[in-house]
Amino acid sequence: MKLRALPVILTVVVSITLLFGGWFTYRQLTLHNPLMNIVNSYPGVNSAQVSINQKDVALKLDLKPETDLGSLVQTLNKQSADIIGARTLKLEVVDHSDDTLNQIWENAMFPVSQAMANRQYTDIPKTLEQIARDNSGITAKAEMDDRNVYVSLSNGKASKFLILPLGAQVTGGNA
What we know:
It is built from five helices and six strands, in the order H-E-E-H-H-E-H-H-E-E-E. By secondary structure, the protein is of the alpha+beta class. Helix 4 (99-117) runs antiparallel to helix 5.
Protein backbone atom coordinates (compact mmCIF):
# COMPACT_ATOMS: atom_id res chain seq x y z
CA MET A 1 0.00 0.00 0.00
CA LYS A 2 1.49 3.25 -1.12
CA LEU A 3 0.54 6.49 0.64
CA ARG A 4 0.19 9.54 -1.50
CA ALA A 5 1.74 12.72 -0.16
CA LEU A 6 -0.98 15.19 -1.16
CA PRO A 7 -3.89 13.50 0.67
CA VAL A 8 -1.72 12.98 3.78
CA ILE A 9 -0.60 16.63 3.82
CA LEU A 10 -4.14 17.86 3.23
CA THR A 11 -5.45 15.69 6.04
CA VAL A 12 -2.80 17.01 8.44
CA VAL A 13 -3.45 20.63 7.46
CA VAL A 14 -7.25 20.26 7.81
CA SER A 15 -6.87 18.49 11.17
CA ILE A 16 -4.55 21.17 12.56
CA THR A 17 -6.84 23.93 11.28
CA LEU A 18 -9.88 22.34 12.90
CA LEU A 19 -8.05 21.70 16.16
CA PHE A 20 -6.62 25.21 16.60
CA GLY A 21 -9.67 26.89 15.08
CA GLY A 22 -11.86 25.02 17.54
CA TRP A 23 -9.65 26.02 20.45
CA PHE A 24 -9.65 29.67 19.37
CA THR A 25 -13.44 29.68 18.95
CA TYR A 26 -13.92 27.97 22.32
CA ARG A 27 -11.66 30.51 24.02
CA GLN A 28 -13.38 33.47 22.38
CA LEU A 29 -16.94 32.31 23.08
CA THR A 30 -16.56 30.84 26.55
CA LEU A 31 -13.74 32.87 28.10
CA HIS A 32 -12.77 36.10 26.37
CA ASN A 33 -16.14 37.51 25.25
CA PRO A 34 -18.07 36.84 28.49
CA LEU A 35 -15.24 38.29 30.58
CA MET A 36 -15.02 41.39 28.37
CA ASN A 37 -18.81 41.83 28.63
CA ILE A 38 -18.58 41.85 32.43
CA VAL A 39 -15.68 44.31 32.47
CA ASN A 40 -17.02 46.66 29.82
CA SER A 41 -20.48 46.81 31.40
CA TYR A 42 -19.02 48.14 34.67
CA PRO A 43 -19.36 51.94 34.95
CA GLY A 44 -16.04 53.75 34.76
CA VAL A 45 -14.16 51.28 32.58
CA ASN A 46 -12.76 53.03 29.49
CA SER A 47 -11.23 49.90 28.00
CA ALA A 48 -9.82 46.54 28.93
CA GLN A 49 -7.42 44.01 27.47
CA VAL A 50 -7.49 40.39 28.47
CA SER A 51 -4.83 37.73 28.18
CA ILE A 52 -5.78 34.15 29.02
CA ASN A 53 -3.44 31.23 29.55
CA GLN A 54 -3.60 27.90 31.40
CA LYS A 55 -2.80 29.31 34.86
CA ASP A 56 -4.13 32.85 34.92
CA VAL A 57 -6.26 35.55 33.38
CA ALA A 58 -4.55 38.93 33.11
CA LEU A 59 -6.71 42.03 32.76
CA LYS A 60 -5.25 45.39 31.88
CA LEU A 61 -7.81 48.05 32.78
CA ASP A 62 -8.05 51.67 31.72
CA LEU A 63 -10.32 53.34 34.28
CA LYS A 64 -11.97 56.73 34.62
CA PRO A 65 -10.78 58.81 37.61
CA GLU A 66 -13.79 58.19 39.87
CA THR A 67 -14.11 54.43 39.27
CA ASP A 68 -14.61 52.28 42.37
CA LEU A 69 -11.78 49.78 41.93
CA GLY A 70 -12.66 47.65 44.96
CA SER A 71 -16.24 47.23 43.79
CA LEU A 72 -15.05 46.44 40.27
CA VAL A 73 -12.79 43.67 41.57
CA GLN A 74 -15.60 42.31 43.74
CA THR A 75 -17.95 42.28 40.74
CA LEU A 76 -15.32 40.55 38.62
CA ASN A 77 -14.70 37.90 41.26
CA LYS A 78 -18.42 37.16 41.63
CA GLN A 79 -19.53 37.25 38.01
CA SER A 80 -16.49 35.65 36.41
CA ALA A 81 -15.92 32.75 38.81
CA ASP A 82 -17.50 30.25 36.39
CA ILE A 83 -15.67 31.73 33.43
CA ILE A 84 -12.20 31.87 34.99
CA GLY A 85 -12.47 28.59 36.85
CA ALA A 86 -9.24 27.64 38.66
CA ARG A 87 -7.20 30.35 36.93
CA THR A 88 -5.85 33.26 38.95
CA LEU A 89 -7.16 36.72 38.10
CA LYS A 90 -4.33 39.24 37.75
CA LEU A 91 -5.16 42.91 37.40
CA GLU A 92 -3.13 45.80 36.07
CA VAL A 93 -4.52 49.33 35.98
CA VAL A 94 -3.24 51.88 33.49
CA ASP A 95 -1.63 54.78 35.35
CA HIS A 96 -3.21 58.17 34.67
CA SER A 97 -1.61 59.97 37.60
CA ASP A 98 -0.01 63.38 37.59
CA ASP A 99 2.81 64.89 39.64
CA THR A 100 0.42 66.00 42.39
CA LEU A 101 -1.03 62.52 42.90
CA ASN A 102 2.43 60.93 42.73
CA GLN A 103 3.69 63.31 45.43
CA ILE A 104 0.64 62.64 47.60
CA TRP A 105 1.20 58.88 47.26
CA GLU A 106 4.88 59.25 48.11
CA ASN A 107 3.86 61.03 51.34
CA ALA A 108 1.26 58.38 52.13
CA MET A 109 3.40 55.38 51.26
CA PHE A 110 5.20 55.18 54.62
CA PRO A 111 2.08 55.18 56.84
CA VAL A 112 0.34 52.76 54.47
CA SER A 113 3.40 50.46 54.43
CA GLN A 114 3.58 50.60 58.20
CA ALA A 115 -0.12 49.76 58.52
CA MET A 116 0.24 46.82 56.16
CA ALA A 117 3.40 45.53 57.83
CA ASN A 118 1.71 45.68 61.25
CA ARG A 119 -1.57 44.30 59.88
CA GLN A 120 -3.33 47.43 61.10
CA TYR A 121 -5.45 47.70 57.96
CA THR A 122 -7.93 50.11 59.56
CA ASP A 123 -5.15 52.71 59.62
CA ILE A 124 -5.07 52.86 55.81
CA PRO A 125 -8.49 54.55 55.36
CA LYS A 126 -7.60 56.92 58.20
CA THR A 127 -4.40 57.90 56.38
CA LEU A 128 -6.29 58.42 53.14
CA GLU A 129 -9.00 60.48 54.86
CA GLN A 130 -6.25 62.70 56.27
CA ILE A 131 -4.82 63.09 52.77
CA ALA A 132 -8.22 64.14 51.43
CA ARG A 133 -8.62 66.69 54.24
CA ASP A 134 -5.12 68.11 53.74
CA ASN A 135 -5.39 68.39 49.93
CA SER A 136 -8.49 70.10 48.60
CA GLY A 137 -9.98 68.50 45.51
CA ILE A 138 -8.38 65.13 46.21
CA THR A 139 -10.51 62.07 46.82
CA ALA A 140 -8.81 59.11 48.44
CA LYS A 141 -10.36 55.74 49.10
CA ALA A 142 -9.22 52.32 50.28
CA GLU A 143 -11.04 49.01 50.08
CA MET A 144 -9.92 45.55 51.03
CA ASP A 145 -10.76 41.96 50.23
CA ASP A 146 -9.13 38.70 51.32
CA ARG A 147 -6.17 39.19 48.94
CA ASN A 148 -5.53 42.89 48.36
CA VAL A 149 -5.98 46.47 49.50
CA TYR A 150 -7.25 48.72 46.71
CA VAL A 151 -6.20 52.37 46.96
CA SER A 152 -7.74 55.04 44.73
CA LEU A 153 -6.51 58.62 44.53
CA SER A 154 -8.12 61.16 42.22
CA ASN A 155 -8.30 64.88 41.64
CA GLY A 156 -11.09 64.68 39.05
CA LYS A 157 -8.75 64.86 36.05
CA ALA A 158 -6.05 62.37 36.95
CA SER A 159 -6.22 59.17 38.93
CA LYS A 160 -3.92 56.71 40.65
CA PHE A 161 -5.11 53.19 41.38
CA LEU A 162 -2.97 50.85 43.44
CA ILE A 163 -3.43 47.17 44.20
CA LEU A 164 -1.47 46.25 47.32
CA PRO A 165 -1.26 42.51 48.06
CA LEU A 166 -1.87 41.61 51.68
CA GLY A 167 1.29 40.44 53.37
CA ALA A 168 3.58 42.16 50.87
CA GLN A 169 5.74 45.23 51.20
CA VAL A 170 4.37 48.44 49.68
CA THR A 171 6.76 49.72 47.06
CA GLY A 172 6.71 51.84 43.98
CA GLY A 173 3.89 53.95 42.78
CA ASN A 174 1.91 52.01 40.20
CA ALA A 175 -0.48 49.14 40.30
